[in-house]
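[Automated response] Your request has been received and processed.

Submitted sequence:
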Amino acid sequence: MIVWDKTDFIDFFETCPQENEDLDIYCEWNIKQEKLKLHLRIDVNLGDTFVSISHDDFEAPFTSMAIRECQMAKVVKESKKPHIEFAPGKFFGSRYDESYIIDYGFRLYKYPNWHIELFQK
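Generated structure:
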């Protein structure tokens, strides 16, 4: 199960996700920013996370990434460029909480345009 705050994501994306309301299985965002389209899907039970960024002029996404069993995702507002950090699966072992610092994984930025960055602190 993934540790995350859905309300932080709603604030970050400035929109509510599409959800499977009957089963509460996933949250999904499809957001357009000029000619770029972001697709983010989080399986709230398994933690499986998929993100892709595509451009209107191309059929296939130019960036896509999946993390199986992602254990934590958090919105980082304190930096000059607000973003979401995603931790890889099995990162925390058996103990973690929302205050834990994610040491490596990937970041999703929305400004100046959607982009993904791998990181290690």
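Summary generated for your ticket: The longest strand covers residues 26-33. Strands lie at 18-19, 26-33, 36-43, 49-55, 63-67, 73-76, 83-86, 104-109, 115-120.
If you did not submit this request, please reply to this message.
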